[in-house]
């Protein structure tokens, strides 16, 4: 009974094997010699760019870190954002104690007010002094004018013998003395006016200096609220609440999310083809972002070599920190060559047979491929621009031409 069952199973297996072989033979060798128009895909031979590249992986990172320094010696009053948090531009990160700076502002403001009052008094005093000095000069001038008039009268009297020559000589001496007195007064008044102008200018300069100092302190008061200069991720905060910090010491380390780079990783077997300056493109959501290879890590870790990619558009809106991307290192870039869309069969070698549509027929044609690119293959010979080729994975073994039925 057991032998019969075993024989039955063997017969079933043999029948199945023969049926499979027959089906394979029929599908492989007994193919139709006609195709219906519209039942297959074609590709038109055109001119364009063929790019061949080595595929690598990459992660988007911030291109640089931002260091926020303490604007003054102070104490950390409050920490509002912890390391690892994302912050937007202008967002408050931490606050420094403002008490000392606020007191300095108050003192400077009081001093500035006093200086302004002094300036006002000096200006009023100068105005009054100018009036007094001007009055004194006018009095001296009138005195000289009066003496000269007296001298003229005396000279007329001298002619008629009504006055002695000695009296006229005395009047002349009085005029000379009065003129010298006026000259001295004018010079002293000039010096006095220059002193008043210098005092006023000095007060104005002091007011400007203190005003500038006040502006700096007021700006410093604002800076004690430590805000993010750009969007980014907080990497570290130096110190805790209550900690004392010195001026110009690092308070916050954060990444700058306004510009990015890519850290690439490639299999070590391609390391010799990786060179600084190599052109690359980073593929994100079917968009290719061009760039170049920067620094290459000399060590191999986990059979991988790491390198940096500097993007042409570092602020592209699709770039996101820690995003995984494809990196393609270009090893061949041919422009304005005949090309055809890449199909799996073209991976087997540069000599290929394709069916070219000519009228109502598809004729088998030998073509020579050049660069096998990522999306297209270069055509060296065998076909011309504008011709159409069937790209469907159809098996037409043994046929040289296929009729196309409309």
UniProtKB/TrEMBL annotation:
- Which keywords does the record carry? Coiled coil, Membrane, Transmembrane, Transmembrane helix
The cross-references to Gene3D superfamilies, in alphabetical order and at most eight, read:
2.40.30.170, 2.40.420.20, 2.40.50.100, Helix hairpin bin
Membrane spanning residue stretches: 7-26
Gene Ontology, cellular component aspect: efflux pump complex
Spell out the coiled coil positions from the record.
98-125
Tell me the GO molecular function terms.
efflux transmembrane transporter activity
- Keyword Coiled coil part of the UniProt annotation: yes
| Name by which UniProt lists this protein | Efflux RND transporter periplasmic adaptor subunit
Q: Which organism is it from?
A: Draconibacterium aestuarii
